[in-house]
Amino acid sequence: MLIADLNGERIDAARAKRGPDYRCPACCEIVVLKQGRKVIEHFAHKPPISCSSANGETRAHLEAKALVHSALIGRGLKAEIEFSVSTFRGDRRSDVMAWSPKNVSIAFELQHTAIDLDEIEARASSYGHAGIAQIWIPFLKSSVWKDGEPCREGWFVERYSPRPFERWVHGFGGKHGMWMYDPAKKEFWLGRMAGHQTYVEEKSWYSEGGEENYGGGFHRWSKRYKELTLTGPHKADELLIKIETRKKFNGEGFSWPAGLIARLIPRQITR
Ligand SMILES: [Zn+2]
Fold first, then answer.
1. What is the pLDDT of residues 218-252, one digit of tens each?
2. What's the pLDDT tens digit per position in 24-37?
3. 153 is a domain residue
4. Of the residues 31, 55, 79, which one is the last residue of a structural domain?
5. Which residues neighbour 128 within 8 Å (Cβ) at sequence distance 6 or greater?
6. Helices 164-173 & 117-130, crossing angle to 10 degrees?
7. Which domain holds residue 10?
8. What separation in Å is there between the alpha carbon of 15 and the centre of ligand 1?
9. Are 16 and 132 contained in the same domain?
10. CA of 52 to the centre of ligand 1 (A)
């Protein structure tokens, strides 16, 4: 985690000094300040770790939170890392919370590890009820660079096997698709998925009566694969935020809540 508690005050690891007993805001156990050349400054629980807020805390996730936070601050917005929403049950922290000039709260959920559908739907619904705008940003797996090729928009993966939560995030974005984050280059891509067709080979066989049968020879939509087109890349500070209202929507076994959704819009850059 990047934020710890010290006598009721939020302390950012980037500005913390060694010495005091920093505590985890979730479980109140003492956490250790880690500072090194190769890792971003952060706080870590001491083993054995039972705190749920220690889950999914990869180095890339810590870096992404710090990156988004500093881009928002750099643009003059108020923003907090690991901001606790007091009305939430379970894990109350948003990765980054920002406030628009009109004081609308905007939660950034940077999803490095997979999240199960019940959890993402419950959390999204909580944001909706609380009037907090939300944006979910899955991390790109490094395999997309191996499996894809350059295209006019940026990058194209013909056979992409999305994780269930990515299908959810993509559906939540509707026609606008989903923003994805490349942890290796610290860049953002706008991802759009479309149906992928697989070819069923033509074949013939004989039934018991000696009759010849034919099958295959056609395309069908793949259940597993999608075509993924990535537009970009964009640096964090090139992306502006737009807040929109969306209605409750169900489909494809998913449920998307009513509420505010935050979209990222690349700023027109004149070079
Ligand atoms: Zn804890």
1. 888 999 999 999 999 999 999 999 999 999 999 88
2. 998 899 999 999 88
3. yes
4. 55
5. 134, 257, 258, 259, 260
6. 30
7. 1-55
8. 20
9. no
10. 7
